[in-house]
Amino acid sequence: MAKGQTSESMKIAYKNNPLERLITLVNVITSVVVIGTFIFLHGLTDIPAWTTSRQLHIVQILAFWIFLFEKAVRFVNAASKREFFKTFWIEIPLLLGLLIVVFGAGKLFHSVNPPGLIMTALGVYLVYQVVDKLCRNLVGLAATGHNPMRVLIGMFVILILSGAGLLMLPKAHACEKLSFVDALFTATSATCVTGLIVKDTGTDFTLMGQTIIITLVQLGGLGIVIFGVVLALLLRQALSVRESVAMQDLLSAQTVGRIGRSIGFIFLTTILIEMIGAALLLPMWDRIPPEQSGGHNIWFSSLFHSISAFCNAGFALSNRSMLNYTQCWQVYAVIAPLIILGGLGFSVLENLAQVAWARLCSWVRRRNCSVNLLEIAHPSRLQLQTKLVLVTTAFLIISGMLVLMLFEYLSPNPNADYSLRAAYFQSVTTRTAGFNTVDIRAMSEPSKLAMILLMFVGGSPGSTTGGIKTVTVAVLTLVVYSAFRRYPQVQAFHRAIRPVVVGKAVTVVILYVTVIFLVIFGMSITERGKGIPLLDLNFEVVSAIGTVGLSTGITPKLSDPGKILLIITMLIGRLGPLSLLAAMTFNQKIAKYEYPSEPLIVG
Description:
two-stranded antiparallel ribbon, 24 helices, globular
């Protein structure tokens, strides 16, 4: 790399470092001003008296020229003009498109309002500039050499606070008054893909507010840093070694060399699955009256619920979740599979895709078909992680379904639903998603306890879910099994599991149990005198830390301190107690010695 300061792309070297720092500062200020103009224009019902729409548009035009001037200065200051063009090549088609709109408005497009069309195009360009700079700097921030988990936690906090601020805009909510705590709770629940609500998503938030919520779900589900890397990859920019290492830490990937491909797979798989899910959900809304389904455009409703299901968020536009759709096959054949796929983890989905592709190539070769594309395929096998996830997930779904059917069948409630489809859907959604086709409040206490256990387990590592994770349960089960069989090693599928993995599994469970106990203890103090049963508090806390979102209906009744406790719990559940522990102990030195062992008697 050439000598000089690098900025944004981590590859471009600049000759004049003080000038580059000044340009960076100007960029930050201009981006903040641009965001402010959009908030005034599109977030407020009434623009303040000290400004007008015309003045805000003039500010946006000035911001455009500042961004343009910034690129020109950086081009002159860049040590390598070739690297500069490789990094910012997308600017050329964007500017050409903007010029076509400016000079073609009223002629080529026959617009009734040419100035409005021009400002819309300019707004799109400015949004791209702000998002581009944000994403590039997020990736650069993750690669600064500091603890990546601390960076990730900071990004989640910033995203939550930004989301809360946007939800408080007058055009984002339909409430008479939305308190900051309620806005913060909603933003945290969306970003942490939980689904617990203190305000009804379908009626208390406008279309703008619902768009903000589902955007937070998507960003929080996949990780905001991934979108920064995706933007870099889409613009054909290779990640630096430091950026790749940072992404490896954040994604828990096995090798640095496959980071780009893994992130590309995550992004493309997510978009593909969500689009297919949205298309399959389209016919479902025709059977439900508008007043029961939220009354929104069917495309928005389909996309909203598809993203919410795949990201395991559990947000629904109806205040009854899926209770109005129990007769629709899409609930069981589309939403449930979306939840399962989102809960498996992207590493498992990638491994399954590799194995499927390898077998397809083998099948084609056996038929003597010569296709050059197939020559790049290598034999793949199911990894131990994939096998444990698939077996544990299948066991939890089936056993959970049978247990819920039995407990509801024995329930004294005459209206209890113990049908196969109801038990199947609740078994799937309880571990991760938070949708419901039955009234949780009316379920029997044994069923609620069973659901607490399922929520405690949660989904699989590397997914958008919470809980202690399926692999943790599998490892601990194998530890017990190996102890009974007196095996010298913990093993599964003819593979040994390292002691360090067993230690992490035990640590995760202990940390989760500790957090759950402390939060329940705290909420029993903050919510005393409200007559909330302890079982319901347990249910709520485990649902929060498992980022599930199911509730017995007590969430809106909680006090502000109780809501804040749940906010912290949801954040811990999304990031994981082990990740938080790693962030706190990142700089501690590893001991370079071992003490002699001595036998102990346990149990």
